[in-house]
Design brief:
The chain is of the alpha+beta class and 173 residues long. It has 2 domains: 80 residues, Beta-Lactamase; 65 residues, Arc Repressor Mutant, subunit A, CATH 1.10.10. Strands 1, 2, 3, 4, 5, 6, 7, 8, 9 and 10 form a 10-stranded mixed beta sheet that branches. A hairpin with a 2-residue loop joins β5 and β6. The chain is globular, with a radius of gyration of 16 Å.
Length: 173
Amino acid sequence: MRWSVSRRCRPVNNAWRAAWVAWDQTQPLVEKMVTRVGLGLLLRTGQAPTIGALAAELVQAEEKDVARILETMASRGLATLDGDRLTGIGGLSVVPGPHHLQWNQRQFWTWCALDAVGIPAALNGQVRVESSIFPDGEPVTLAFQDGKWVNSQVGLGIQMAPPETGRPLNTGT
């Protein structure tokens, strides 16, 4: 099962939550730091930063080390690269994907439906998300203001699957 916007919603159960917590605990701290800084650069600039720019934002980081970390993350589906540029990380991308997000006069895409609501929930200002409803592809638009969902479409939910360590997160849903 992939993540998708749906008209049905199942409550998140403890087994699902435990699976994601366990997966998160397996992720190296340095990758979490690179993700945090990479997300910040994507959001601030609306463009794919160079690996050098990312390294400059990290304390005492060498560009070659950051490149190696990003290549490892990309091989596991946790980042996307285009040459020496970071095009996506942490669920946010500057490359067109399944869920379109407009924020601060910038265009982004998210890798999955959870990111399509989770990222706007963490942002200040107005955010517009365009996606589609599973399984028929009916278009849906969500609006957020200062982290709150402001247009209510009754019955929307997100179907989610537990993490699979072998499945890349950047393949879209």
